[in-house]
Each structure stands twice: as structure tokens, then as C-alpha cells.
Design a protein that fits this description.
173 residues, alpha+beta, two-stranded parallel ribbon, two-stranded antiparallel sheet, 6 helices, 17% strand
């Protein structure tokens, strides 16, 4: 008698659905991914029109550094080495109909200067925000599946960051 086949159906071919499919198949399941769009990727897709590429998906991929703690996990589900990472100076730009623009820079010093230029009356909060970014720049991105000695050390390294994280996490617009 043939053993019953284990099958899982995943609804949604975005990053989460595709990752679930990779791990389910690696665990011995027969996998079917259902996606409403014409290509997989969900919100992590782009498209071309009239010679332009419209990239509205991933603006950063946390843990994608080859030397980073999460790099090995990303390599389990996608071929990071075939991706081209772009590190733009200008992360995003918001423009008004009259041509004014607010630039969101990748570098905190430029971001702070741009915000101060646009809204000098908010200098205290802008400087506090920029300071928080600088304070969290070395936030450890440890792998979640590390053994306890390493995980415990990572948690200890987080302790000094907790007040800053709590302050900014509790803010409301």
C-alpha cells in the first residue's frame, strides 16, 4: 500500500508564500502555490513600460549582506548572488504638483539636513530622530535560529538599545 501523500496549498506567491513553499517542500510536502498575478513575487515585483522600470517593491532587504547573520537564511530561499543590490544616495523623493521636493536620503546626515531645510521649526524633533537612527545603526541582526549561547549574547547586546526602541515604537502620529 502506498503511503498517503502530504500536500500543502499556499495561497499567495509573494515572498512569504514562496518561502513557505521552499521550506514545506524541503520538509517533504508536495507544494502548490496559487498566485492571482501573472508572475510570482506579490508586492516584490516590478514592471517595465516605455523603457522605464517601475520598482515599487523591496526598498531594502534586511539581512542581505553576505557576511550578515541572516544572509545564510536568505540563501536558502533565493539566489542572492544573482541579485544586483543598488545603494542609492536618494532613497525616495516626494514631489508636489508645483515642483517642490522632499528627498529621503540613505545617509542620515543628508536626511537630517534635508528635513531641517524643509522644516526648521521642527529642528529639535528632527535632530532627535537623526540621533535615534545613528544610535540604532549598529543594531545587531542576529539569526533567529542560533543556538542559545549566541542568542543570549545577541540579547545582551540589545539591552542598551531597548530604551531607544521603546521610545520610538510608542510614538503615534
Amino acid at each position: 500500500m502506498k503511503p498517503a501523500s502530504r500536500k500543502i496549498v499556499i495561497i499567495g506567491g509573494g515572498v512569504a508564500g514562496l518561502c513557505a513553499g521552499v521550506y514545506a517542500q524541503a520538509s517533504g510536502y508536495q507544494v502548490e502555490v496559487l498566485e492571482q498575478g501573472s508572475v510570482p513575487g506579490g508586492l516584490a515585483t516590478s514592471w517595465k513600460r516605455a523603457g522605464y522600470t517601475f520598482e515599487t517593491c523591496l526598498h531594502w532587504l534586511v539581512g542581505s549582506s553576505p557576511d550578515g547573520a541572516l544572509g545564510a537564511q536568505w540563501r536558502e530561499v533565493c539566489d542572492l548572488d544573482k541579485l544586483t543590490f543598488v545603494h542609492p544616495q536618494e532613497f525616495q523623493r516626494l514631489e508636489t504638483e508645483d515642483g517642490r521636493a522632499l528627498r529621503i536620503y540613505s545617509h542620515v546626515d543628508q536626511l537630517e539636513a534635508e528635513f531641517l531645510r524643509e522644516s526648521p521649526r521642527d529642528a529639535e524633533e528632527i535632530r532627535a530622530f537623526a540621533s535615534a537612527i545613528r544610535g540604532l545603526a549598529d543594531f545587531p541582526m542576529e539569526a533567529l535560529n542560533e543556538a542559545w549561547p549566541r542568542k543570549g549574547l545577541a540579547l545582551l547586546r540589545l539591552i542598551p538599545k531597548l530604551p531607544l526602541l521603546q521610545h520610538w515604537a510608542s510614538m503615534r502620529s
